[in-house]
Fold:
Amino acid sequence: MQNFRLLELFYRIHRRLFRRLVGQLQGLSGAEMMVLWKTNKRGSYRVTDLAQEICISPSTLTGILDRLVERGLLERFPDPDDRRGILLKGTPLLKDFIHQVKASLDQELVKIFGAMPAPDYRRILEDLELLLKYLEQEKGDGYGKTRDKNGPGQFHR
Structure:
């Protein structure tokens, strides 16, 4: 049951952090912010690739993109490599917007994590980075498996 406890903890942490940070997103949903963040970071995205990466349907992403294009944060262009495809790019306004949101989020995160002792914060960060590394491995390559007292490739119980 520890595995379910871990999922419960992630859910509760995510919910509490999101509640604290949502006020800094200037009226955007978490999905809208994720679209903006990823597009800004990468420069451009094929719409179908972005939908797959953030695990939402292309039709749901279309509604999100409509709102973000209307706000002047994103632009759509035909994909020169695929005449049926659409490319998504940030506008100059997006860079300023991301800068403002990052500054606001950083201030709020300092409030949230500032009371935590630095060694605890570093340990949690390192452990989460390690967990992500394991989750991102290909299946058959140790995906989700541990190398502990349970033996090679055994799950925690």
Observations:
- The chain has six helices and five strands.
- Residues 92-113 form the longest helix (22 residues).
- Strands lie at 44-46, 74-79, 82-90, 146-148, 151-154.
- The helical segments are 2-21, 30-42, 47-53, 58-70, 92-113, 118-136.
